[in-house]
Design a protein that fits this description.
Structural class: alpha/beta
Helix content: 25-40%
Number of strands: 12
Number of helices: 12
Strand order of the largest sheet: 6-7-5-8-9-4-10
Oligomer: single chain
Length: 325
């Protein structure tokens, strides 16, 4: 099944989906993505140029071709891109019926369940995923798709728990940052896709997180890569087959030094903050004072007050300190 681009799109560009049950050491070309591997749910980490939206729409269309009476698809995304998903579905797959579950006037109860069963794709947000958890759980979903799946990187949050609690035949996660801060992010997303595949959170921490993050051991890292690689479909911008006319990235470091006046103002604020900390009677309040002044008094004056002899926020002149050498 192919999804051709709309009028004005690049000639010859198509999206092709195929279901496979084995991995062969053959490089993929074009827009080929394996959607199911040995019954496991897949995980897509993109390099920004993968067009996950169109690929996902094509997958939904393909499912409708294979099953004339499928269960509805639930697509969870950030609120900021909810309208974009609706527009893209109408643009590339106008035959799909879309229900946007968002806002104060959204459907509820039996009305929502009935409307969901009569539509193809229900689009909602992460905030409502947790808030309407019981309502969403009343629908038998064919596919549950998480866009920007790093939103469930913390497995203890309500939205992550709600995502794992949804019943569906297939699950798909779309993200460009499967690991934002720590390896637990990856475990949480994989736990949504294939519960138990990477073990419990405690066992994952002892077997992979600590050896890799703290001790930088190569063996656990290689083992984790072996486990995840078949389910992680990734394309890099460095791949020359993605955009052949994309030039090499040039990185330049440009340093911007403070002027003498800016350095004077900055040093005055720093010294004034240090004096107030030392004179603080309540030692317990010092950490909060430091955090409050770090941005307000330590960084902003050097940007917001160049060339201004007075602190406009406090209504008094800066103490004229000499820049440190």
């Amino acid at each position: 099944m192919c999804v051709t681009p709309p009028a004005g799109g690049e000639p010859g560009q198509v999206t092709v989906f195929s279901a496979i049950t084995a991995i062969e050491p053959v490089p993929y070309t074009g827009w080929v993505y394996d959607l199911e591997i040995a019954g496991r749910h897949n995980f897509v980490a993109n390099g920004i140029v993968c067009h996950n939206t169109i690929q996902t729409i094509g997958m939904v269309l393909h499912g409708r071709e294979q099953n004339p009476q499928p269960d509805p698809v639930l697509l969870i995304c950030p609120t900021s891109v909810l309208g974009n998903w609706e527009r893209e579905i109408q643009r590339f797959a106008p035959s799909l019926r879309v229900l946007v579950h968002q806002g104060a006037n959204r459907l509820g109860g039996e009305e929502f369940v009935t409307a969901s069963q009569q539509t193809d794709v229900v689009v909602s947000s992460y905030s409502l995923l947790a808030r309407d958890r019981e309502l969403l759980g009343q629908v038998a979903w064919g596919d549950v798709i998480l866009d920007e799946a790093q939103n469930i990187k913390n497995p203890t949050t309500k939205q992550a728990q709600a995502a794992r609690g949804l019943a569906a035949r297939h699950r798909l996660a779309l993200t460009g940052t499967p690991v934002e801060n720590r390896l637990t992010d990856l475990w949480s997303i994989m736990e949504f896709l294939n519960p138990g595949y990477l073990g419990s959170q405690q066992s994952f921490r002892s077997k992979f997180t600590l050896p890799i993050e703290r001790y930088h051991q190569p063996e656990p890292a290689a083992q984790l890569k072996t486990l995840v690689q078949p389910l992680l479909l990734r394309r890099l911008k460095s791949d020359p087959t993605i955009i052949q006319d994309l030039p090499e990235k040039n990185e330049m470091k440009v340093f911007c030094n403070l002027t003498a006046e800016q350095a004077t103002l900055y040093e005055a604020v720093v010294q004034d903050s240090l004096r107030q900390i030392e004179e603080s009677e309540d030692a317990a309040s010092r950490p909060g004072f430091v955090y409050a002044h770090e941005a307000e008094a330590g960084l902003q004056p050097s940007r917001a007050l160049p060339g201004q002899p007075h602190d406009q926020r406090f209504g008094r002149p800066f103490r004229q300190a000499q820049p440190s050498v």
